Amino acid sequence: MSLSSRLAIRIPELDQAAMETARQRQNRLTKPPGSLGRLEELSIQVAGITGQPQPTVERKVIVVMAGDHGVTAEGVSAYPAKVTQQMVLNFLRGGAAINVIARQVGAKVVVVDMGVASDLNPQPELVDRKVAAGTANMALGPAMSVEQAETALAVGMEIAADLAGEGMHLIGTGEMGIGNTTASSAITAALTGAPVTEVVGRGTGVDAVGFARKIATVQQALSVNRPEADDPIDVLAKVGGFEIAGLAGLILGSASARIPVVIDGFITGAAALVAARLEPRSTGYMIASHQSVEIGHQIILEALGLSPLFKLDLCLGEGTGAALAMPIIEAAARLLREMATFASAGVTDKS
Fold this sequence. Notes:
alpha/beta, 5,6-Dimethylbenzimidazole Phosphoribosyltransferase, Chain: A, domain 1, Rossmann fold, 2 domains, six-stranded parallel beta sheet, 6 strands, about 10% strand, elongated
């Protein structure tokens, strides 16, 4: 049995009874029906995900997966590859943007080495699940083997299961990897059929020459590897990244555990696209936090049928958008659970 077939067995449908109960309660709360807009929709979705008509999402975690990309040899990034390792250390010290926002919103940060090219010293805050020391250069051949892609997916699923065992209510997706917008562009083009020029953005801020080189590199990678659009694991193996594959597994594992998973920006969106192609039911468990300024992100959101909660012109990654969305999701659940009904408050309903 294929990996995707095994996953299809594990991911349940959304709990329609819980959603209907939540919807009915929303209509009895002390407000005009629909007046809380997307918050009402969110609360009903979370009820369906968790199977709880009045869900709780107080225990929050951002999983930041890191990996290096051999395609950086093509000059597709404004930053050198060594920045991946340096930023992982910054995460572990608590000095990155995601650490600041996570502290603000009360979320735990878990840092996972999926494929950093450098050796990282063991420390309690680092989860070492390195598949290999970075991917190969996808402009010259496959980024990884099919076996490595499946291993990375399995790692992500295992981490989701571990977090479920810890009692986490809400999982956010984050990443770090110099060159990973190039890989994400190739994944998006391969899975959606969108032209390369419509999915490649500036990433870390390359200049005009670097931008043209990045587009040409993605086109070359797709031409050399010819990934199969109907086989997401083949796409991952040929033009993906270890952290992207790990995040796809994390999303699938979260869905299997009935935990809502918050999608961040372009790179985690590419991982979500892979997850959705492996198991379409996983999209019901996804909440899109924001729309990145990376042009390919809108194509991903449309392909997934997801509407972002906000647009703040973010393109940093790390899970920053996902972390910012968490209080909104928690507020939606709290409103459903804690607001008084017309009957309990003694307030006259319009009817």
